[in-house]
Design brief:
By secondary structure, the protein is of the alpha+beta class. It has helices at about 1-10, 20-25, 30-60, 190-195, 225-240, 245-260, 290-320, 415-420, 430-440, 460-465; strands at about 70, 75-80, 90-95, 100-105, 110, 120-130, 135-145, 170-175, 180-185, 200-205, 210-220, 330-340, 345-350, 355-360, 365-370, 400-405, 410-415, 480-484. The protein has 3 domains: about 1-60; about 70-150, Immunoglobulin-like (Sandwich), CATH 2.60.40.10; about 170-484, Phosphatase 2c, domain 1, CATH 3.60.40. The chain is elongated. The chain starts with a helix and ends with a strand. InterPro entries: PPM-type-like_dom_sf, PPM-type_phosphatase-like_dom.
Length: about 475
């Protein structure tokens, strides 16, 4: 009490004196002064509390709070961390509704799925819980909703009056031997953006003598009429095996080759074609009593002959259309399959960078069935239209002769699927990479798109939807064929 009076005397410039000291002494226990002092202290405390309350509001108003960007069409959630502002409460946030979001005041949380891409100013309406009037104030903050990358790509129709018109997307499902098959082929975003055609193609065909074929081709993006080359290649190679005599021969030789345990056989040498006398394309058959080796040579010879004839027909097609062979550059992969008592025989061939894989019945092992033309540059890819592939020593490696007791899935794909989902060739022979891929197909992806191989009444459309997945930098045509 005395200290407080002395402070007042100083403020009012009352000099110290004997009378002052005497007065202070007499008033030390004055009840009235004591009551007044308590009131003054309480008022001071109230003033400080009021000041602090408003200061907290100003600090929150000026604070730099980072609100993460949202992405259009993607689930969004952000909770404000108010640990540095324990007395601040957010009542509402204005303008969120303009981008399709909501605010939960109880949890101080912004949530929802943004419907549009936009940069907006949001108004954060808040108050201090210690304010008996709960007077609100507004903090303005910038909020960004990024565009869905897919929306940045235009989807222009291919010109209907162009040569070699091709539909942009096509789906297919059917039985395949004693299994089923589903295929989807989709125009890539890069082609859709520029109103150009899908260059991929495929064909599934049941053949005589219980054989069936699946062919997939990827026309070169640099070739003006690649779409025609890929279609021609698929159609022609499938039809070339639509021949009972050829298939009976294959059935006989396949039985000879696979019916007993195969041993390691010598490499096959492919004879070059005698263009001058137009002799048929054949593979040399070693003069040996080894019937298995002879059967292997005969099988590869049949495949090789049709492949060589396909290249000749591609050249004739280009000439008839008055275009160059380079204008119809295309890759090609195919599998010729039949079920025997001893298992599924899969004869395969490939030129280019499109893989063929088979996954065993219990999904513990995977086999890459074809040779891939891959490298660090796009020039590493080879095409069916390149005559030089037939003179290379690795030509024989392009043919695959395999037999499996059973399998869960046999898959052919173009690089529009391979590049984003597997990235590198080594992963094509890694079962964990394939199990990841199968989980992706089963719905474990950011779009929650599922391909149901059990309840498969709508499987072709499910596969088509799944193939719309986003992968930065990968906007090529996509074709995926699955035998299951």
């Amino acid at each position: 009490m005395e200290d407080y009076l002395r402070k007042l005397l100083t403020e009012f410039e009352i000099k110290n004196s004997k009378a002052v000291e005497s007065t202070l002494s007499k008033l030390a226990d004055n009840q009235k002064l004591i009551d007044i002092s308590k009131t003054i202290k309480e008022l001071n405390i109230s003033m400080i509390e009021l000041f602090t309350m408003h200061k907290e509001k100003e600090e929150f108003k000026e604070a730099h709070i980072i609100i993460p960007n949202a992405n259009a069409k993607k689930e969004y959630q952000f909770t404000f961390d108010l640990s540095l502002f324990p007395n601040i409460r957010i009542q509402e946030i204005n303008n969120l509704e303009s981008v399709g979001l909501q605010f939960d005041a109880e949890k101080a949380r912004i949530y929802g799925v943004p419907t549009v891409a936009e940069t907006i100013d949001i108004q954060i309406v808040f108050f201090n819980k210690n304010d008996e009037n709960l007077e609100t104030d507004i903090k303005v903050a910038s909020f960004i909703v990024n565009a869905d990358p897919k929306d940045l790509w235009l989807n222009k129709p291919s010109p209907a009056d162009s040569r070699f018109f091709k539909v942009e997307n096509i789906n297919y499902k059917s039985t395949f031997l004693d299994k089923k098959i589903v295929v989807s082929s989709k125009r890539g975003r890069s082609h859709a953006h520029n109103a150009t055609f899908r260059d991929d193609d495929f064909l599934v065909k049941n053949l005589p003598n219980d054989w069936a074929i699946v062919a997939v081709a990827d026309g070169a993006g640099s070739a003006e009429f690649a779409r025609a080359g890929s279609k021609f290649a698929c159609d022609w190679i499938a039809e070339s095996f639509n021949n009972e005599e050829i298939l009976n021969t294959l059935s006989q030789e396949v039985t000879q080759y696979f019916a007993t345990n195969a041993e390691v056989l010598p490499e096959i040498e492919i004879l070059s074609i005698d263009e001058e006398n137009k002799s048929d394309s054949k593979i040399s058959i070693e003069q040996t009593e080894d019937l298995k080796l002879k059967s292997k040579n005969l099988i590869v010879n049949v495949l090789y002959k049709n492949i060589k004839n396909l290249q000749n027909e591609l050249l004739k097609f280009a000439e008839s259309e008055e275009i160059t062979l380079k204008d119809i550059h295309t890759t090609l992969i195919f599998t010729l399959i039949k079920k025997f008592q001893f298992g599924y025989v899969v004869l395969s061939f490939g030129v280019g960078d499109c893989p063929i894989n088979v996954i065993n019945k219990d999904q513990t092992d995977v086999h890459l069935l074809n040779f891939l033309d891959v490298g660090e540059s796009s020039g590493a890819t080879r095409f069916m239209t390149m005559p030089e592939i037939f003179g290379r020593p690795d030509m024989v490696n392009r043919f695959g002769l395999n037999c499996f007791p059973d399998f869960s899935k046999l898959i052919l794909m173009t690089d529009g699927i391979y590049d984003p989902k597997f990235v590198v060739e080594s992963k094509l022979e890694n079962i964990e990479s394939w199990n990841d891929f199968l989980r992706d197909l089963s719905g474990e992806n950011e779009d929650f798109k599922k391909v149901d191989f059990v309840e498969d009444s709508n499987i072709e459309n499910q596969l088509s939807d799944w193939m719309d997945f986003w992968s930065k930098g990968n906007h090529d045509d996509r074709t995926l064929a699955i035998i299951y």
